[in-house]
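Quick review question:
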């Protein structure tokens, strides 16, 4: 297994980055990540006023995957996500979905214990570790890590944890994969503009697909697949996620458009990933049990 420490980070996905590690498809990698504050929030006296904003949203990498060529699809199989036992959250006036009523900057430090995040004396939540930022080199100009788009990036999707496969478009040789911004728990929407932000360690391997025609970014878990779309408004992101799933069901699964629409209407789930970043991210989930009755197995994609 190859290891990549959190010492090599970047702040914008770009085709021009120097690879931090080169791997073969199928090779297992253990990668450490910083929290989104790059470890600057260690006590409740560390606030966004003292924060060095140049060091926000670091991603570890990039990882160069041998054989990945523009036009291919990169499958990232996430085997395990481990997070630290301390994390932070902040409020920032003017930021997030409640920025209009939040008037005070605050940092809170939380402990994790026995699979639970301790919010306060009364509330403990089950941890559900996830990766907020995962992406590859974009087409064209560099994209700051805080912005999600067609290359992945800051999608803040709660499905992206252990057992999830993330399908991303390859736009540059080697794909240049990076990850960061783990949350030990987060709710859909990411209301105050952060989850429970933690450093962590992800174990993953990759596959390079030459013929897959998936509408990327695309996710697969044990139970479902999901299209993920980011756009300047929630309306556009919603429309994109829905139409990408329809395209997948009509194109790859072979359903007629009416049939796809009807089955999406009764078996699909439209959900917000986050509504607080520079681009909003929406996903459309669809059960794999239905796909298998149509004879489609994503495991067979080449
Ligand atoms: Ca994030
Ligand atoms: Zn985060």
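Suggested answer, residue by residue:
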């Amino acid at each position: 297994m190859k290891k990549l420490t959190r010492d090599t980070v970047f702040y914008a996905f770009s085709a021009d980055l120097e690879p931090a590690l080169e791997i073969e498809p199928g090779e297992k990698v253990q990668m450490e990540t910083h929290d989104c504050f790059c470890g600057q929030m260690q006590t409740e006296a560390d606030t966004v006023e003292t924060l060095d904003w140049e060091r926000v949203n670091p991603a570890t990498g990039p990882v160069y995957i041998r054989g990945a060529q523009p036009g291919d699809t990169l499958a990232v199989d996430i085997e395990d996500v481990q997070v630290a036992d301390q994390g932070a959250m902040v409020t920032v006036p003017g930021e997030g979905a409640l920025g209009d009523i939040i008037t005070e900057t605050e940092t809170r430090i939380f402990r994790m214990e026995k699979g639970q995040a301790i919010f306060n004396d009364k509330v403990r939540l089950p941890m559900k570790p996830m990766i907020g930022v995962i992406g590859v080199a974009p087409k064209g100009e560099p994209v700051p890590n805080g912005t999600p788009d067609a290359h992945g990036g800051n999608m803040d999707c709660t499905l992206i944890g252990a057992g999830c496969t993330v399908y991303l478009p390859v736009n540059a040789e080697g794909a240049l994969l990076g990850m960061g911004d783990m949350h030990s728990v987060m709710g859909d929407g990411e209301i105050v503009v952060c989850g429970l932000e933690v450093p962590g360690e992800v174990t993953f391997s990759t596959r390079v697909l030459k013929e897959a025609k998936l509408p990327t970014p695309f996710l697969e878990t044990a139970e479902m697949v999901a299209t993920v779309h980011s756009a300047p408004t929630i309306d556009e992101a919603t429309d994109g996620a829905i139409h990408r799933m329809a395209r997948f069901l009509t194109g790859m699964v072979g359903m007629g458009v009416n049939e796809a629409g009807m089955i999406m209407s009764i078996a699909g789930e439209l959900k917000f990933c986050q509504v607080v970043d520079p681009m909003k991210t929406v996903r459309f989930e669809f059960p794999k049990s239905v796909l298998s009755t149509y004879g489609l197995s994503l495991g067979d994609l080449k």
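Why it works: The mean pLDDT is 97. The pocket of zinc ion (ligand 2) is lined by residues 36, 132, 181, 183, 194-195, 197 (CB under 6 Å).
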